[in-house]
Write a structure and sequence with these properties.
This is Sucrase-isomaltase, intestinal. It holds the Pfam family Trefoil. Its main location: membrane. A hairpin with a 4-residue loop joins strand 26 and strand 27. The longest helix is centred in the first third of the chain and has 20 residues. Helix 14 packs parallel to helix 15. This protein is of the alpha+beta class and about 950 residues long. The strands form 11 sheets. Strands 41, 42, 43, 44, 45, 46, 47, 48, 49, 50, 51 and 52 form a 12-stranded mixed β-sheet that branches. Strands 30-29-28-25-21-20-19-32-31 form a 9-stranded parallel β-sheet. An 8-stranded antiparallel β-sheet has the order 3-4-5-6-18-15-14-12. The two termini are about 50 Å apart. It has 20 helices and 53 strands. Helices cover about 20% and strands about 25% of the residues. Among the domains are: about 230 residues, Immunoglobulin-like, CATH 2.60.40.1760; about 240 residues, Immunoglobulin-like (Sandwich), CATH 2.60.40.
Length: about 950
């Protein structure tokens, strides 16, 4: 590790020295001076930059900044440095290619506990810059380590951020073009501390770790853009997260967040380095010292807010499609699923249920929706309805909005209003409300959820309250909230001649002077425009950037990326006020802090094996972003899925927190009962999931209460293991479970890497409790994918039923996986009513238990400590499985709270070191004292151990079959 770090330092010093001494800069360390298309040597040199026709790295910029480009220091105070940009820059100091640099700037640093904040903005009293109105909790965070800042005030200003404990440089902007700051072009470049970089989004990534061997520019502007997983596609999808985690060469980790809501982009390069570009706002950066990846996320969530807690039922299986023809059609899919014995908790209703796709209405083929929802409630199910922000201006909800003076995105002036569509409706004639086209038959207006007055949010809540009288929904799904607008600036949009949509004129962002065009067509348009071609604008697929929000205070140019966040906040409030229950909100467009209010699904994906891969990465990334309630459209949204793909996706999706099958109206039906093999695999996978829901729920509870991830990359737990740093196709539930999905067509086995510093036990029927090591594991379509429990953890379980309502009444279980190095294990368990609104964990009633287990040759002891007491009765704990127990228990000596326990139904298998404790009503957790102990004496160590090596599992399938027969009933014994 030390050698790696020393090499990195030497490489960095050499790079800086060489760049400073020579005209040319090595292809690995360049900052693009012409980040838009079609650079030439002439246009490059006109910017004062360096041209290289044939760089040694094919993706390296041909036109790049000289090393001496940047700001100079005017003055230095304790925590503030004033920077200036000379009107006549010195040789080698290129000019900003997209506008005059603002001068002077201030560089300020501040600490919020362990979190370091650096802000670069115009000097106080100078040009006022937009700052996103997001709820950042600038309070003290905790770390065992700290960060400090070093600045170079000679010649061109540069700064670095270093780790106190190791002196490792985490951030260093000493690159050519490292800092630029004009009105509509801000640039910051820095070296990474290592090549182990994760995050940035939302994009479709094929690997968990960024490929820094090449230059790649990732667009960052929220768009109605489905993921394209066929090869490298750098389009931005629905949300924006300028946040990354870097694991340093010694295994320490840190994180960096840039809070900016303007159109932006990130270029990563082989320095390893990155270039951040934004076309508005300021540089507001937060550095989190970790030093573990999980601690980085917790520190990040101290700032952006800890994630919302989903209702218990929202962790159940969900089923939906866009394209049901009627309520009867959707009911058929629900009943097929139930009849196949597949657990099902939450049917979702897409826009088909609406009257011509208008919010807060019910279509003619769905008139009995309210009654059907009541029937589902009686069966223990719950319902999620979709709503779009685009409000049909001919609808009653829009008329009520106007009566309540709700605000909408508007044109800044009346002379810009598109009167050819504005004057079609009496509700908009004479207004400046900007009208677009979405699903409804008429033009739509877009509520301004950033309204500084309460009118808009109050109207939004009122509409939900009114509709709830007809349909008693339990959760809300908000879509199209980038916001999307079809065919903007196009003469013949895609919906023309579509039999399900009138040929209405689309929104046109026509501009008449430079001050107007600078928002939709700024000097630098970012990759979010260039990737669509010469005719594109920032307003492509959305509303005009010169539109105003905040009742004229702000521009859409500044607030567009915040739209989904603001809607999520308003919608969560509506859900809670109307239903008086927690429920869940699922949003498509997200931004840092949105995890406080909503979960996320990965959007309109494709039915392909490539997409299955990128969803595995996406779920892990959104856990890093502070949004753990996340998943993909199982089987794929667009295109026809296949039987095998749908089967494997259900096996994977059973381990994603948000777990929903969903596809569109042009694809074949894909509810799991369409194929017997898919139904069988789905039933097996979700019965397993439902058994482990108490653990999944506890992980969510811990994340909401204390911060952290639910699904996490393997390197989060083993950051010093080099083999985990690019191990994206396996993932973990918390620290305890490892999941190894099948990602290839036709596969009957998977190759898994299991860190050797931990012990791993199989949880599949065929080899339950076996000690497993890295290698090839059997993974046929008629068995559960490999799921392993880590030695040293205790996991709560529950006997599963086909709804969470029924499951929550069943007996609890404990799974104890012994760490053989210490013969111990520990864990935790949270329990509450599953749907109560949590405003303050300090006053909210819930149960919290901590478990510890120890064993030696004389005695074994399980201690259950009640940390917090709830106010509802709990099922009893009737079953305990102990894996890897090396000591033979004396069953006659088992006591619980000093009382003998009948062990007539319990057993110990010495050959497998598996102890199964079975006793109806063994423990009443809700009635126990602060500490309760289950204790027994041991008769010594078992005479043998059995280790199953995964490579043997594939070779000896007949043996597995015999084992499966012997242990197939272990869940129900």
């Amino acid at each position: 590790m030390v050698g790696h770090q020393m090499n990195a330092v030497i490489l960095l010093i050499c790079a800086v020295y060489i760049a400073a001494q020579q005209t040319t800069i090595d292809s690995r360390y360049r900052v693009d001076c012409f980040p838009e298309p079609n650079s030439t040597s002439t246009s490059c040199e006109q910017r004062g930059c360096i041209w290289d026709q044939n760089p040694s790295i094919a993706t390296a910029p041909q036109c790049y900044f000289p090393h001496g480009t940047g700001y100079e220091v005017m003055s230095v105070n304790d925590d503030e440095i004033v920077l200036t940009k000379s009107v006549d820059p010195s040789p080698g100091n290129a000019v900003n290619p997209y506008g005059s640099d603002i001068s002077p700037l201030t560089f300020r640093k501040r600490y919020y506990g362990a979190t370091l904040n650096i802000r670069i903005e115009p000097l106080s009293g100078a040009l006022k810059r937009f700052e996103p109105d997001v709820e950042l909790e600038r309070v003290s965070s905790y770390s065992t380590d700290s960060l400090y800042v070093e600045t170079d005030t000679r010649d061109i200003f540069a700064f670095s951020v270093r780790r106190t404990s190791t002196q490792t440089t985490l951030f260093n902007n000493a690159l050519g073009g490292g800092l630029m700051f004009s009105d509509k072009y801000i640039q910051l470049a820095s070296y990474f501390a290592s090549e182990n970089v994760y995050g940035f989004g939302e994009n479709a990534h094929h690997a968990i770790k960024h490929d820094l061997s090449r230059y790649t520019t990732w667009a960052m502007l929220a768009r109605d853009e489905g993921p394209n997983s066929y090869g490298l596609d750098t389009k931005n999808l629905y949300g924006v997260f300028a946040f990354y985690i870097c694991v340093e060469y010694d295994g320490n980790a840190h994180g960096v967040l840039i809070v900016n809501s303007n159109p932006q982009e990130i270029t990563t390069g082989p320095g390893p380095h990155f270039i951040y570009r934004t076309i508005g706002g300021m540089l507001d950066m937060y550095f989190f010292p970790g030093p573990t990846p999980e601690e980085v996320v917790k520190q990040y969530e101290v700032l952006v807010g800890r994630p919302t807690m989903p209702a218990y039922w929202a962790l159940g299986y969900q089923l939906c499609r866009y394209g049901y023809k009627s309520l009867a059609d959707q009911e058929d899919a629900i009943r097929r699923t139930q009849q196949a014995g597949i657990p099902l908790d939450a049917p979702n209703f897409d826009i088909d249920y609406m009257n011509r796709y208008m919010d807060f209405t019910t279509g003619s083929n769905w008139q009995n929706l309210g009654q059907f929802v009541n029937q589902l409630h009686n069966e223990g199910l719950h319902v999620i309805l979709i709503f779009d922000p685009a409000i049909d201006v001919s609808s009653d909800p829009f008329r009520r909005a106007r009566q309540q003076d709700a605000a909408f995105i508007e044109w800044p002036r009346t002379d810009l209003v598109q009167t050819e569509i504005q004057n079609l409706y009496d509700t908009t004639m004479g207004t400046k409300i900007m009208l677009g086209v979405v699903w409804p038959d008429h033009h739509a207006a877009f509520p301004d959820f950033s309204d500084p007055q309460p009118n808009t949010v109050d109207w939004w809540i009122d509409e939900y309250r009114l509709y709830y009288k007809s349909v008693q929904f339990d959760g809300l799904w908000i879509d199209m909230n980038e916001p999307a607008s079809f065919g903007t600036n196009e003469q013949k949009p895609w919906y023309f001649d579509n039999p399900d949509h009138p040929n209405i004129v689309s929104l046109k962002c026509n501009v008449f002077n430079a001050s107007d065009s600078e928002y939709d067509y700024p000097p630098f348009k970012t990759q979010s425009v260039y990737i669509y071609g010469a005719e594109a604008a920032l307003s492509t697929k959305t509303v005009c950037m010169l539109g105003t929000t905040g009742r004229g205070k702000n521009r859409q140019y500044d607030t567009k990326n915040l739209y989904g966040l603001y809607e999520a906040k308003a919608t969560m409030r509506a859900l809670h006020e109307v239903t008086q229950k927690r429920g869940v909100v699922v949003s498509r467009s997200m931004f840092p802090t949105a995890g406080r209010y909503a979960g996320h699904w990965l959007g309109d994906n494709q039915a392909s094996w490539e997409t299955l891969v990128t969803t595995i990465v996406g779920v892990q990334e959104f856990n890093m972003f502070g949004i753990p309630y996340v998943g993909s459209d199982i089987c794929g949204y667009s295109g026809d899925t296949t039987e095998e793909l749908c089967l494997r996706w259900h096996q994977l999706g059973a381990f994603h927190p948000f777990s929903r099958n969903h596809n569109n109206n042009n694809a074949v039906p894909q509810d799991p009962a369409q194929w017997p093999s898919v139904a069988a695999a789905t039933r097996e996978a979700y019965l397993f999931r439902y058994r482990y829901l108490p653990y999944l729920y506890s992980l969510h509870f811990a994340a909401s209460k204390n911060g952290g991830t639910v699904v996490r990359p393997v390197f989060f737990e083993f950051p010093k293991d080099q083999k985990t740093l690019d191990l994206g196709m396996q993932f973990m539930w918390g620290s305890g479970l490892m999941i190894v999905p099948v990602i290839e067509k036709g596969a009957v086995s998977v190759s898994a890497y299991l860190p050797s510093t931990a012990t791993w036990y199989s949880l599949r029927d065929a080899d339950y409790g076996a000690n497993v090591r890295s290698g090839v594991m059997s993974a046929t379509t008629n068995e559960l994918i490999p799921v392993l429990v880590r030695g040293g953890v205790i996991i709560p379980r529950q006997v599963p039923s086909t709804t969470t309502t029924a499951s929550r009444k069943n007996p609890f279980e404990l799974l104890i996986a012994v760490d053989p190095t210490t013969n111990s294990a520990d864990g935790f368990f949270y329990w509450d009513d599953g749907d109560g609104i949590i405003t303050d964990f300090g006053t909210y009633p819930y149960y919290e238990f901590h478990f510890t287990f120890t064993s030696n040759t004389q005695t074994s002891k399980l201690t259950i400590t009640q940390i917090s007491k709830g106010n509802i009765p709990m099922p009893t704990l009737d079953s305990i499985d102990i894996l890897g127990l090396p000591h033979v228990p004396d069953l006659a000596t088992v006591t619980y709270m000093g009382q003998n326990v009948d062990m007539s139904d319990s057993s110990y298998d010495a050959s497998k070191q598996l102890f199964k404790i079975r006793r109806q009503g063994l423990m009443a957790l809700d009635k126990q004292p602060y500490n309760a102990e289950l204790v027994w004496s041991n008769e010594g160590e078992s005479s043998s151990t059995t280790t199953y090596r995964p490579s043997k599992l594939v070779t000896f399938i007949p043996i597995i079959v015999l084992i499966a027969v012997a242990y197939a009933t272990h869940y129900f014994v």
